[in-house]
Amino acid sequence: MYQALYRKWRPRTFDDVVGQAHITDTLKRQVETGRLSHAYLFTGTRGTGKTTCAKILSRAVNCEHPVNGNPCNQCPSCLGIENGSILDVLELDAASNNGVDQVRALRDEAVYTPAAVRKRVYIVDEVHMLSTAAFNALLKILEEPPAHLMFILATTELHKVPATIKSRCQQFAFKRILPGDIAARLAYVARQEGLELRGEGAELLARLADGGLRDALSLLDQCAIPDGPIGAQEVLDALGLAGNLETARLMEQIGAGDTAAALETLARLYGAGKEVGSLLGELSALARDLLVRKTAPKGGAALLTGGYDENTIRKLSNLFQIPRLAQMLGVLQTTIADLSRSGNRRTDAELCLIRLCDPVLDESLAGLNARLARVEELLAGGIPTACAVPPVPQKRAQEPAPVQQKQQADAPPWEEERPPLPEEPGEPVGYEMEPAPERKSPAREAPAPAPAAAPAADLWPGLVAGLRSRFPAVYPFLSNPAAVQGVLDESTLTLWVDTEFTKSMVGTAALLSALEQMAAAQTGSPVRCVVKVGAPPKAAKGTKVPAEHDNLDDLLAMGQQFDNIIIQE
Asked: How far apart are CA 366 and CA 321, in angstroms?
């Protein structure tokens, strides 16, 4: 019967374990010196050697002739533990034995001395799956076990293990295995199996394994071709992957916003048997490399996956900004997570590509941030001439007909003739803002006569009436003499307000600028407008200051209206 490669080539000694020297050296010293703990907790991602080291340790502590801390694998104890004939060493799966009854049975059985070896060893895999009651039942014997008892706990999710369990164990963290170490181990296994594994194929398998040697051996087993070499293309074809060249081409089409070309590439890869989930995963890995390259251009080379050369990474990274790459990664990760529940995986992949090519379709905050970053880049580099909106011609009615028609022809299509705003009843005419006339030499043209100055007593009410339609939110303050009073003193128009809040409302730059222009148009000379808190001083000669507003007068006037109605009836 054929045996899988990851089972056939499971390490049998600590020296055979790949990439975990910081753990295997410590365990070997403890076996040699006899300074063994009663409980160990092995943590780390899948396929990094947790269960393998637990089995090796269970044989090493019971081996009759250990060699430098390693089991000899020749004595009856090692052979019996390895083939499962010695029942004093048990391997339990906490996923299927997670109840408190199973832990109580284990605790009652553990007090008995072993029959064939020196130590009774319990290997509990995926210990985080135990229930809370089961953990509580395990605490006492885990804290004060008999001398012949040893627990080896293994888990991939350390955060689910209670702190009371972790404090009673020696904890060893298994790290991800480097791609170079995985590739070397794959080359060795391939030679022993009679497979022709090329260097690029081993490197690709090592990257796809994501730090797990068991995954790498399983992928090698899937790509094994006894009568031919195993290169990068053979690995891509066997696993249904697109490859670096296709992924880079697809990313370039996304950067150019060519949605049609991206969809055609996806259709071609889908027709060739590529799996859309793997394709989006490769695209996500490339986007992640580009984001790392953009955020850390100098020290981020060690963080890249290594599947692309430096020229490709540099060329693609110039097509995107950091917010854009972050938005793309979010869209890709969300789509990949939803593919397992999708009714049509190809359609979801196509929608994902459409959103990646056109950020306008992404209504999330990340998409909006990417679009704003693009606008800021364009503004920083200068707005192109084609994007600039030409100014609207002024005073078209006073120009000759041919000139007016030419300006209308030159105007952009979106610039339409706007009708004038309706005037308020009783509003003085001539308050609309017009651009300042072009300065000309006195020798060529005589200066226009200044308009007649308006009386100072009638200036402020006229200004307030002219601002009614332009500043409706501030008009109630301006029209209330108790809140705001305007006093013109020579060339300065002072707005006396009652409180700081009123000052903040009427002291805006837009309002003051409008007042200055309107007052200059009425007086015929430049006027400066300021805002002050307090009561106005004594009115200057010729200046009419409105009387203080009394709310009682309003009530009396309203009552007089009702009286007039009753008398008429």
From this structure: 12
